[in-house]
Design goal:
Layout: H1 8-18, H2 24-37, H3 51-62, H4 67-75, H5 78-81, H6 86-93, H7 95-103, H8 115-132, H9 135-149, H10 156-176, H11 180-194, H12 196-205, H13 210-227, E1 234-239, H14 242-251, E2 263-269, H15 272-285, E3 287-288, E4 294-295, E5 308-313, E6 319-326, H16 327-335, H17 350-356, H18 358-367, H19 373-383, E7 388-392, E8 398-402, H20 407-414, H21 416-420, E9 422-427, E10 430-432, E11 444-448, H22 466-479, H23 481-498, H24 505-518, H25 524-533, H26 538-556, H27 559-562, E12 573-575, E13 583-585, E14 597-601, E15 607-611, H28 615-621, H29 624-627, E16 630-635, E17 643-652, H30 657-667, E18 672-679, E19 684-693, H31 696-707, E20 712-717
Parallel strand pairs: 2-6, 13-15
Antiparallel strand pairs: 1-2, 3-5, 4-5, 5-6, 7-8, 9-10, 9-11, 12-16, 14-15, 14-16, 17-19, 17-20, 18-19
Helix pairs in contact: 1-3, 2-4, 3-4, 3-9, 4-7, 6-7, 7-8, 7-9, 8-18, 8-19, 9-10, 9-11, 10-11, 11-12, 12-14, 22-25, 23-25, 24-26
């Protein structure tokens, strides 16, 4: 938590010390409006709210951003948190500043069906603004950095939620934009909240004498290079970030002693020829480790990073990495997009910047028609993964893909026509399965078949990139329309039968046409085709179908039929046509208020209440003899009784897991009625907890909180 309050005088002094020219009149006006709008507001950390935009503005000055960016940073929260409107900002500061402020403003005035949908739409909005002006994302990254710096003031669960979002979305975006300093700080601060034990363990392992060791190495290298006619512009050093070490120790299963790039020396030279010359001198000075040389100058990373990397061992027997690059490459490595950007005076490399941001537009195009918000977030996170692999075509072209990508992803990355005709693949001249997972440096040859071959639907379950998924779906959308319609119709019919939705043909067509219209589709056939090729998920439209079905049934039912004998409730349930009847709740499905229910007249004990979609209900209704014994049932209004329900949790088996789960339920004041735990395969554990819940909304809150417990894989109501 920061203890000193940032002031506008501090910011102006920092701007003066930067030596860059800024439009101070614009910044003065932005500060005056922000200070007035945020007057009286305080942050959780106890500091005046205006300190936050001031700190964000300072971070942007450190990156060398322009006056409009600094002004937008000062104003970035006024639309979201105060009475100031976007129109007011546009009239006072112009359309560019307004675009930047709007880009980082969340969609607070829209209603969303879930938190995931809200997150997805906010991210989509921000990426869209970023594709128009990359400064939007740079402001947002600086905003997130300062929020994480003051995150100790958040409640514990919010800290973990924000840290996870930062790790999955914002740090990878900083990596894609090449802003390494922000990326590493976001990762380290997120790790501190997500795994404080691991974070502290690595901090303790880092050698406190590292600075002395690196100072000696820098001095030796400078002297040796000078003796051989090479005058470095400067020689820097760094210790690897905590998260960088954590990822290798815990994700790659390495011991601390097996990590060879904890310490690094960076040599900055005038030109590329000197870089390769210096590499030879370093190998002459120190013993290079085999297979630890990487040439990112001839093969840059996807985010534009260029450097020579080699790992060597010195006299102290401590391995360290040497990075050799030009001054321009170093500036790009530190500041990424901000280093050569089109808004700076005297720089007009728009084409180069547009090329750097092509992945944003590609991501937005792929997700443009996405309906499922959870899939949208999943695909965006997958495409932003910082871990990348690169492989070569037989002609020597480099194809960059996220870690875990398959040979099918490789084929579609070359061209959609290559992917559609793919029948096999060779890796380093050896035949491999088409689901072969690519490793860096492999030479991959895609074997193609006839032009009308086409992909398989099963490939959608194999490919990792959203680009490949989108191209496969597009092929089925264009080339297999009749097949898609038939497949989609069959899947829809199965789901309608499973939910016991029965209407006359005319009414069914009318209902589906209305649902298709709400999905912005021209016909039921178009909707079925979308279901068939995977562009529309049944889970997305079934709630709308049920809603429409309920409306039709209510319109058809006579008014009198709704009223009789629904006066008295037993155990919170009204059974239509039966008054003061003994009620019991079926253990097979454990219904809760909010679930659609039906009643079964038992022989000997009143009416058994089931969820309408219970498997036992379907099986019983299929029996002609039992069908007449099923009756309509409803939850009584304003029911406040608690009901028994079971929650099944699958998680990684670890010490303290049960304690964390019970603590979560205790924090929510959820009564625990019983519990059972058993080991499962792959070091997993399955835990069933019987709880008391008021209704389905209460149960969904319980499930949501349990899913956030560390190492939990899935939580379902059983």
């Amino acid at each position: 938590m920061l203890n000193t309050y940032m002031t506008y005088e501090d910011l102006t002094k920092y701007i003066e010390e930067s030596g860059r020219s800024y439009d101070m009149k614009l910044l003065d006006q932005a500060y005056e409006l922000a200070a007035k709008a945020h007057d009286g507001q305080m942050r959780r950390s106890g500091e005046p709210y205006i300190c936050h935009p001031l700190n964000v503005a300072k971070l942007l000055v450190e990156l060398g951003m322009d006056s409009q960016s600094i002004a937008a940073a000062l104003l970035h929260d006024v639309v979201e948190d105060t009475a100031v409107t976007l129109e007011e900002i546009k009239s006072k500061f112009g359309p560019d500043v307004a675009l930047l402020v709007d880009g980082v403003t969340k969609l607070t005035k829209m209603t969303f069906s879930s938190l995931e949908e809200q997150k997805a739409e906010n991210l989509r909005k921000m990426l869209l603004a970023m594709s128009q002006d990359v400064r939007v994302m740079i402001i947002k990254l600086c905003d997130r950095v300062h929020n994480m710096r003051t995150g100790d003031a958040w409640p514990e669960q919010k800290r973990r939620d924000k840290a996870l979002e930062t790790m999955e979305v914002y740090a990878p975006i900083a990596h894609r934009l090449g802003i390494s300093g922000i990326k590493e700080e976001l990762e380290d601060r997120s790790l501190r909240y997500l795994d404080p034990v691991g974070y502290n363990e690595i901090n303790n392992l880092l050698d406190t004498h590292g600075a002395e060791f690196l100072n000696g190495i820098r001095s030796d290298i400078r002297e040796h290079l000078k003796e051989n006619g090479i005058e470095p512009e400067c020689i820097k050093s760094r210790v690897k970030s905590v998260y960088g070490i954590y990822r290798k120790m815990y994700m790659q299963r390495k011991n601390f002693d097996e990590i060879y790039d904890i310490y690094a020396v960076r040599i900055i030279l005038d030109n590329v020829a000197e870089c390769y010359n210096a590499l030879g001198q370093i190998h002459d000075m120190y013993h290079p480790l085999p297979n630890r040389f990487k040439d990112y100058i001839s093969t840059p990373k996807p985010n534009g990073y260029q450097s020579l990397h080699t790992t060597v061992i010195g006299r102290e027997a401590i391995p360290f990495e040497v990075q050799i690059r030009t001054n321009e490459m170093d500036r790009m490595a530190e500041y990424g997009v901000a280093a050569h950007w089109k808004y700076k005076a005297g720089v007009s490399s728009r084409d180069r910047l547009d090329e750097r941001l092509a992945w944003v537009r590609q991501l937005l195009e792929i997700q443009r028609e996405a309906d499922d918000s959870e899939e949208l977030l999943r695909d965006i996170k997958s495409d932003l993964l910082p871990e990348e692999v690169f492989a070569f075509t037989p002609r020597g072209d480099v194809i960059n893909l996220p870690a875990g990508a398959t040979a099918i992803d490789f084929a579609y990355a070359i061209h959609s026509a290559v992917g559609n005709r793919m029948i096999g693949a060779k890796v380093n001249n050896r035949i491999v399965p088409i689901d072969h997972v690519i490793s860096t440096g492999e030479i991959i040859e895609v074997i193609t078949g006839p032009a009308d071959k086409g992909p398989s639907r099963d490939w959608l379950k194999i490919v990792k990139t959203s680009e490949a998924k989108n191209k496969i779906r597009n092929w089925f959308k264009k080339e297999r329309r009749e097949e898609n319609i038939a497949e989609g119709r069959a899947a829809l019919d199965r789901e309608l039968r499973r939910n016991m939705i029965n209407l006359t043909d005319a009414k069914m067509q009318e209902m589906l046409a209305e649902v298709a219209r709400r999905q912005r589709m021209n016909s039921v056939e178009e909707m079925c085709a979308a279901i068939g090729y995977g562009g529309l998920l049944l889970s997305k439209i079934m709630p709308k179908i049920k809603e429409e079905y309920t409306r039709i049934r209510e319109e058809e039912a006579p008014r009198e039929a709704v009223i009789p004998k629904r006066v008295h409730a037993t155990d919170g349930v009204i059974v239509e046509g039966i008054d003061n009847c003994p009620i019991k709740f079926a253990k097979c499905c454990a219904p809760l208020p909010g679930d659609e229910i039906v009643g079964f007249i038992t022989r000997g004990f009143g009416v058994s209440i089931h969820k309408k979609d219970c498997e036992n209900v379907k099986a019983s209704m299929a029996n002609e003899e039992n069908r007449e014994r099923w009756v309509k049932a409803y939850w009584a209004p304003n029911e406040s009784k608690a009901f028994r329900a079971a929650v099944e949790i699958e998680a990684m088996d670890r010490d303290g897991l049960l304690s964390d789960l019970l603590q979560t339920l205790g924090d929510m004041r959820v009564p625990i009625l019983g519990m059972n735990a058993r080991p499962a395969n792959n070091s997993h554990a399955v835990i069933t907890i019987n709880v008391s819940a008021a209704n389905t909304e209460h149960m969904n809150n319980i499930l949501g909180r349990l899913r956030k417990v560390r190492d939990v894989i899935s939580v379902t109501r059983s």
